[in-house]
Write a structure and sequence with these properties.
Order of helices and strands: HHHHHHHHHHHHHHHHHEEEEHHHHH
Structural class: alpha+beta
Keywords: Cell membrane, Membrane, Transmembrane, Transmembrane helix, Transport
Protein name: MHS family MFS transporter
Pfam family, one: Sugar_tr
Number of helices: 22
CATH class of the largest domain: Mainly Alpha
Helix content: 55-70%
CATH architecture of the largest domain: Up-down Bundle
CATH superfamily of the largest domain: MFS general substrate transporter like domains
Subcellular location: Cell membrane
Distance between the termini: 22 Å
Radius of gyration: 24 Å
Strand order of the largest sheet: 1-2-3-4
GO cellular component, one term: plasma membrane
């Protein structure tokens, strides 16, 4: 058995600085990337015509997904740069590109001001965000892994794995804080811009921290030995032995991991808000609290993968997702289905209000509030602009008591599955490829799996749900959207079980 790796106090101090500096920057990039998805409902109203709200929302999700689709291209471009120039400088560039794009989205005028230029500009900036993130994650994961002892990479790289979920958590937290400060109407009108603009401050802090970082020791070693790849793209994807590893990494791990991650967090939020009609703030509170509770499990499963191997942890999480997604979402829907709740007629009330909106138009609203026996309330609001036609009724459900906590618990169960498939994957990918082409080789399957298979989940799942609506069933099948992540995760599980090796720390050999 290989002796256990030892780390001196000085090395450990350096390692924790590396983890902190890398994680802070990566968290900010995820914050920048995901704040768009966290505000999808409002952005659909700002940047797309409202003649068809459903089409506008789907167009927003498609724009959100576009950032994922280009992530593999960012992986190739910045992966090549990282394998030839260095890890540190490459993900400094990606941080600035991401921050600048996010800041700019906060400044774009809405559809009412510049028409189709608004969604076009948003799409361009969203593509730049995708390119930046395509280079960031592989660099950060590789950088941390190459500082960590070989036998403890699952534990140390798991801190990078927390940043995606924490970035989503921070984006939700900032949104709720700003909305609480300026009010719901002002937030929908202009306050939504603040979380985007705030990115400039966060990026400045991260750049300051990252300027103090040194290059990866393994990269220094291969550079001193003259073993830097002259063409990492060619070596990664044209050599049969390495291309085989790329395909196994993609279809045997990353694709399934991507759909489980985005179903358990992003589609869960979309499902609760759009399909279950739960109120905006309450939806984000439910998801945010579940994220906060579940995040430490990334580190736990990363640590566990050092002991029992990456494959067994990831494949177990994937199989459980295949088996549990439909029962979990069925229960989520039932908790919010008012046909199973008893209305209290004496508590029903109608509230009328008139106010001037941000554009100076007098708006009259009529809100009907229905109270149920479990304490939940359903509000149905119709807004009529002065001299105009009534808008579409807006229904929002506010849960109370047991249904509220039960819904949060169901999201938390999904978070457990997310941490099982995602916690060990950085160490798994890093150890799969040799050092001199590692950045390029690991980044592409990760970002295809997460960016395309995973990133398309909210859009495809929502589209499947909308297409399930028929004349005989106008409400549609609320579980229709789950077929996409279930099928992808099932296929990945089968391929992974056949082709992946369950290397434990004693079996890992780091090749240059």
């Amino acid at each position: 058995m290989t002796p256990q790796p030892t780390v001196s106090p000085e090395q450990k101090k350096t390692l924790w600085f590396v983890i902190t500096a890398s994680s802070v920057g990566t968290l900010i990039e995820w914050y920048d990337f995901y704040i768009f998805g966290s505000l999808a409902t409002i952005l659909s109203e700002q940047f797309f015509p409202q003649s068809n709200p459903t089409a506008a929302f789907l167009a927003t999700l498609a724009t959100f997904a576009a950032g994922f689709i280009v992530r593999p291209f960012g992986a190739i471009v910045f992966g090549r740069l990282g394998d030839m120039v260095g890890r540190k400088y490459t993900f400094m560039i990606t941080l600035l590109l991401m921050g600048g794009s996010t800041f700019a989205i906060g400044l774009i005028p809405g559809y009412d001001s510049i028409g189709m230029f608004a969604p076009a500009l948003v799409l361009i900036l969203r593509l730049l965000q995708g390119l930046a993130l395509g280079g960031e994650y592989g660099g950060a994961a590789t950088y941390v892994a190459e500082h960590a002892p070989v036998g403890k990479r699952g534990f140390y790289t798991s801190f990078i794995q927390t940043t995606a979920t924490l970035g989503l958590f921070v984006s939700i937290g900032v949104i709720l804080a700003v909305r609480s400060s300026v009010g719901g109407e002002a937030f929908s009108a202009w306050g939504w811009r603040i979380p985007f603009i705030l990115s400039a401050v966060l990026v400045a802090v991260s750049v300051f921290i990252r300027l103090r970082m040194d290059e990866s020791p393994l990269f220094k070693q291969i550079k001193a030995a003259g073993k830097i790849s002259k063409n990492p793209i060619k070596e990664s994807f044209t050599k049969p032995e390495n291309l085989k590893l790329v395909l196994i990494a993609l279809f045997g791990a990353a694709a399934g991991q991507g759909v489980v991650w985005y179903t358990g967090q992003f589609y869960a939020m979309t499902f609760i808000e759009k399909t279950c009609r739960v109120e905006f703030v309450q939806t984000r509170n439910i998801v945010a609290i579940a994220l906060l509770i579940g995040t430490p499990l990334f580190v736990y499963f990363g640590w566990l993968s050092d002991k029992f191997g990456r494959k067994v942890i990831m494949m177990t999480g994937m199989l459980l997702a295949v088996l549990l997604f439909r029962p979990l979402y069925r229960q989520m829907y039932l908790l919010t289905d008012v046909t199973y709740k008893t209305e209290i007629p004496s508590e029903k009330k109608i509230v009328k209000d008139s106010h001037v909106n941000a554009e100076g138009v007098m708006m009259t609203s009529e809100k009907t509030i229905i109270v149920y026996d479990d304490g939940s309330t359903l509000s149905k609001t119709i807004v009529i602009p002065d001299g105009g036609a009534p808008g579409e009724p807006k229904e929002e459900l506010e849960l109370s008591g047991e249904p509220y906590w039960a819904l949060m618990g169901l999201v938390l169960v999904q978070l457990v599955l997310v941490t099982m498939v995602y916690g060990p994957i950085a160490a798994f990918l890093v150890e799969l490829f040799p050092t001199h082409i590692r950045y390029t080789s690991m980044s592409l399957p990760y970002h295809i799996g997460n960016g395309i298979f995973g990133g398309l989940t909210p859009f495809l799942a929502t589209s499947l749900f909308e297409n399930s609506k028929t004349a005989s069933n106008p409400a549609g099948d609320p579980l229709a959207g789950l077929w996409y992540p279930i099928v992808v995760a099932a296929i990945t599980f089968c391929i992974g079980m056949i082709f992946l090796k369950n290397k434990k720390k004693e079996q890992v050999v780091d090749s240059l």
